[in-house]
Design brief:
2 domains; about 20% strand; 9 helices; UDP-galactose 4-epimerase, domain 1; alpha/beta; single chain; 7-stranded parallel beta sheet; Rossmann fold
Length: about 290
């Protein structure tokens, strides 16, 4: 049986990824700073910034594949936090430790922000990378150097650039949960970028795409998105429609002029070109949030 160790398996992205691999017969091991005593899967105490704990967890669990979701996600601050550099260095060291422990594959999580603020349709094989801030710069550098580490150790690596993720257990201050919470209270919700078109992808679809990426031996850089763009306005109105919320509470009065941007995975990008597609429509995924 194949075994995958996931650092952050109890988190926003890690949890659905762990569930997806388990459903396909993989043995899933959780690496966590705070293991759950009654967890249904094998767990080890491990901290990205504690090399000793990582080495011990890898030695005991002996995974074939290692995936790390760990990164600074402090809302509104992660874009400029110097901690991004520490996460870059620690993530690369974790990859080295994983290969030294016998892992065959290491997967890191990138971001659509590596393509800049309005790149249009993105394809990892041709799109230019843009380091607008320390967050995107650190992510870009991690993805590039991870590839070198894999080649050095003779292992496989993947850098999965995730587009606009949403789903269960999302931080309440993020857009979708913030929108839902405000409207359920009967409060107006200010939307400054209604024309910003993004590739919204549910975390369950992200998990499915990563499993497909691994099983089909895709290249190192992989764009994780649906290939369909939806504006913030359209997404907000869809949320109102499916969750029976009042659309009159959507406030566009503080709209930022000229903020017509697009960040969407190109349909010719590797994942989509090879046949992966979402299991459910955006509408159905939004409905499930209720």
């Amino acid at each position: 049986m194949s075994k995958i160790a996931i650092l952050g398996a109890n988190g926003f992205l890690g949890s659905p990824i762990a569930d997806a691999f388990s459903s396909k017969g993989w043995e899933v091991v959780s690496f966590s700073r705070s293991p759950i005593s009654n967890a249904v899967r094998e767990e080890y105490s491990a901290n990205l910034f504690d090399e000793k704990s990582l080495t011990s967890a890898l030695a005991f669990s002996k995974p074939n594949v290692v995936l790390s979701t760990a990164w600074d996600t402090e809302h509104g601050k992660f874009w400029t936090n110097e901690s991004n550099i520490a996460y870059r260095d620690a993530s690369l060291r974790f990859a080295e430790l994983s290969f030294k422990a016998g892992a065959e594959t290491f997967i890191g999580i990138g971001t659509m922000s590596e393509y800049g603020s309005s790149p249009g349709f993105c394809n990892a094989s041709v799109s230019v990378l843009v380091d607008n801030d320390i967050y995107s710069k650190s992510k870009i550098e991690t993805g590039l150097r991870l590839k070198d580490i894999g080649e050095k150790f003779g292992g496989r690596t993947h850098w999965a650039r995730v587009f606009q993720a949403f789903g269960p257990n999302e931080k309440p201050e993020r857009f979708v949960p913030g929108l839902i919470a405000n409207l359920r209270r009967g409060d107006k919700f200010s939307i400054r970028t209604p024309n910003f078109e993004m590739d919204w992808i549910h975390t369950s679809e992200i998990a499915s795409a990563i499993l497909f990426m691994l099983e089909n031996r895709l290249n190192h850089f992989v764009d994780i998105g649906t290939g369909k763009g939806t504006s913030v306005r359209a997404l907000s109105e869809l949320v109102c429609e499916e969750l029976k919320l009042d659309p009159s509470l959507l406030d566009y009065s503080s709209e930022m002029p000229g903020h017509e941007k697009r960040v969407v995975v190109d349909s010719n990008s590797q994942l989509l070109a090879l046949g992966w597609k979402p299991a459910e429509s955006l509408r159905n995924r939004v409905r499930s949030l209720g």
